Amino acid sequence: MFVNRLIEEIKDKRSPIVVGLDPRLELIPSTIKNKYFKKYGKSFKAAAQSILEFNKGIIDSVYDVVPAVKPQIAFYEQYGIEGLIAYNESCRYASEKGLLIIGDIKRGDIGSTSKAYSTAHLGKTKVEGEKLGAFFSDSITVNPYLGEDCLKEFLGDIKEYSKGMFVLVKTSNPSSSQLQDLVVEGKKIYEKVAEMVENLSKKYIGEYGYSSIGAVVGATYPAETKKIRSLMPSSYFLVPGYGAQGGTADDVVHSFNEEGLGAIINSSRGILFAYKDEKWSEKDYDAAAREAAIKMRDDINTTLEKNGKRYW
Amino acid sequence: MFVNRLIEEIKDKRSPIVVGLDPRLELIPSTIKNKYFKKYGKSFKAAAQSILEFNKGIIDSVYDVVPAVKPQIAFYEQYGIEGLIAYNESCRYASEKGLLIIGDIKRGDIGSTSKAYSTAHLGKTKVEGEKLGAFFSDSITVNPYLGEDCLKEFLGDIKEYSKGMFVLVKTSNPSSSQLQDLVVEGKKIYEKVAEMVENLSKKYIGEYGYSSIGAVVGATYPAETKKIRSLMPSSYFLVPGYGAQGGTADDVVHSFNEEGLGAIINSSRGILFAYKDEKWSEKDYDAAAREAAIKMRDDINTTLEKNGKRYW
């Protein structure tokens, strides 16, 4: 099961963190980019190959420090077909290095369409009897606005292929409160979603008491996180918003249960572009990323320990 | 502006309908498929080339009958990179035939990520100073669960490139009521979303009194549609759920305003696979699709006229 593999990797590496692979071409070291611009001109191919080489450098430098990476597909889609080839190749490369892949795709649609997204990212596509893999994720993020029949379409592939999903419950952005915090019969919308997800997740609980059906819960809302944690005791939380978006280790500590499990904290910009700190130069972007990942891991582990949530 | 072009095309063709390009490989005529299986084996390339040829046949047979097509990207993503090449080529081909493209992608994320989706599907991507197009839509569908700061990220490209978007308000699927119909201070969630979208849409109103920021409102909920129509007088509605999902012309008539404008009705399976009716054979799938599109157009126009909503 996905959640078992995730927990084992977290324990083995002593690291409940995930690196968000959200590449920004303008921040990729020019030593990398110039090589591809020279070869392929100012093209999507050059951009995508730059991203892929950059990602490989990041993956090589963090694969023994973190259990997972989370590529955000939007940052690849903007480079068209070539960008999506780089997405796929980055996922494949990270997977070969033993990392779990959380595809941050936030898909969700009516039944038959959600099924197609599930096939694309978690399952296999049938072509004249052959079963082929389209995109490569161990788990994905899913949007709940269409309700349970949308979410259920992912469950078949989650079961058959030992995959997982994280459903958006409370997102990290400033206007997440606009819909998610509206109050219905004394309960906020995100609590209603939390109940819906918790309900679905019960059939997918692994040996550590957690489910492969998890929740996205932003680090930027610690009070809400406490509430959601109590509503979803068996859901693993994918927590964006640490670092660049303002979330701290003290904020994310509420995502973890008493035994120090139950959450994986994401950082994207803070690790990928750690080299922007004046002590680094761009050629050392990979070493800077490694140092930032280790610092983040230690920050979170220290805070967990301080709160009596030692998981190792 | 997108909405002006849409209305002009609807009036010119006397046709407020859109064909959903949601290809299903198992329903594509074997005369098409076998050619590509022979050439490329049981591969994504064969599947994608079959889809592209099928789509071109549909487009050739309906481009003078309908103003727009709505490819659902999930059905292409499941064939991986090759599938997305077919998505792009289908959009390009339809656009060359004068059709408007509504990319049914239902994206939506935190600010910087939504901006990347906007760049990918509506805008242009900067590569070392060059501006390049990644995917090709005139308008897209967007999910509102993350709130207004997500939606706002699409507005820049909508303005700069004369594009549009349709925000999910009330979807056509059975469990759409689960979140969308929850009541907050006497208002349902979909009414709250309707107000949010109407508010954003006001700055993008074209010469016919409608906005390029529209709403997705399912044909399967006619009572809710009436309510939403009154809350969003200037939003164009993209209406899925006619035909295969159970919506009728009498159901969708409430999506139109008194002058017969304000909505475009989608049919996917009912047109694409009309050849499954026993009077057709699969080699005539394109002629069957044309007849089904004309029948749907006439069904809707007749019902509009009966309700005093003649727009032509």
Describe this structure in words.
- The structure is a homodimer of 312-residue chains.
- By secondary structure, chain A is an alpha/beta fold.
- Chain A has a single domain, classed as Aldolase class I (TIM Barrel, Alpha-Beta Barrel), CATH 3.20.20.
- The first copy, chain A, has helices at residues 2-13, 30-40, 44-62, 74-77, 80-96, 111-121, 148-152, 155-160, 177-180, 189-201, 222-231, 249-252, 269-272, 285-306, and strands at 17-21, 68-71, 100-107, 125-127, 130-132, 139-142, 164-170, 183-184, 187-188, 211-217, 235-239, 263-267.
- In chain A, the strands form three sheets. Chain A has an eight-stranded parallel beta barrel, surrounded by seven helices. Chain A has a two-stranded antiparallel sheet with strand order 4-5. A two-stranded antiparallel sheet of chain A has the order 8-9.
- Chain A is globular and about 60 Å long.
- Chains A and B meet through helix 3, helix 4, helix 5, helix 6 and strand 4 of A and helix 3, helix 4, helix 5, helix 6 and strand 4 of B.
